Amino acid sequence: MITENIIITDYTPQYKQAFKDLNEEWISKYFVMEEADYKALDNPESYILDKGGYIVMVLYNNEPVGTCALIKMYDDKYDFELAKMAVSPNIQGKGIGKILMQAVIEKAKSKGAKWLYLESNTILTPAITLYEKSGFVRVKRTSTPYERCNIQMELEL
Predict the structure, then answer these.
(1) 10-residue block means of pLDDT along the chain (157 residues)?
(2) What predicted TM-score, i.e. pTM, was given to this entire model?
């Protein structure tokens, strides 16, 4: 596990391309980019940040290697959707995902969140394992903008 030279930081416009590239890379590897992906990745400020959400970046040796968004939900139960989580394939398997997940959960807690929600796909075994180890449990919801979504999970903070 890498622990040295890691910085967790909030998104700033200088990370816009890295946020998009990191996510586009994994989505395109396993799936097809969808309309909802383009909305979030092309316009993170207006689609996520301006609506009360947050984006966390992980830097390793001052290079962006991971990211995750908390998208504000206007839901009876959920405060944020944990979304657009990505770690560079060049550094996967070194604990960056775990560090990122902890940082995002702490960010949500610091903003008063009680519940997180996420959507994923079960072919992403390392991601599902990370979510489960972080306390997420499977739930059934009906509405999703993603064709690739076949699992939905929640976490009580």
Answers:
(1) 84 97 95 92 96 97 96 95 95 92 97 96 94 96 77 96
(2) 0.93
